[in-house]
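ok trying again, last paste got cut off:
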Amino acid sequence: MKDGTNYFKIGAVARKAKTSIHTIRYYEKLGLLAGPARSQGGFRLYGEETVQRLLFIQKAKEFGLTLEEIEKITCCGEKGLGPCCDMTVKLFNGKIRELEGRVRELNRTKKKIRGLVSGWAGKKKGPTT
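nice, full thing came through this time. structure:
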């Protein structure tokens, strides 16, 4: 590889992206990462763009996106910014609705638990002497 690009073996990429080798191979299998170049000895060789893609995937997962949704965004992004932006906005609006529903459910659960606790606290007897 003499094209001026710095290439890294899979272990170095895993360390840089703070992920595992198994995750990298899994993402390759799913098509989230492009297949790597190979050294003469058959080792996988990756460029810095792979590290950046892994960091993007991790950030997207933190925002609640599934790997399938991340794949849609990355594939769409390769077609141009316009369609990708529209789809990404729709995806995140869906995530917001999903989160709002979970917050409502959590608030209902919190209210039920408070009622339970206050019921127990009202029945609690003072210390016996």
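cool. Residues 1-62 form a domain with the Multidrug-efflux Transporter Regulator; Chain: A; Domain 2 fold (CATH 1.10.1660.10). The longest strand covers residues 37-38.
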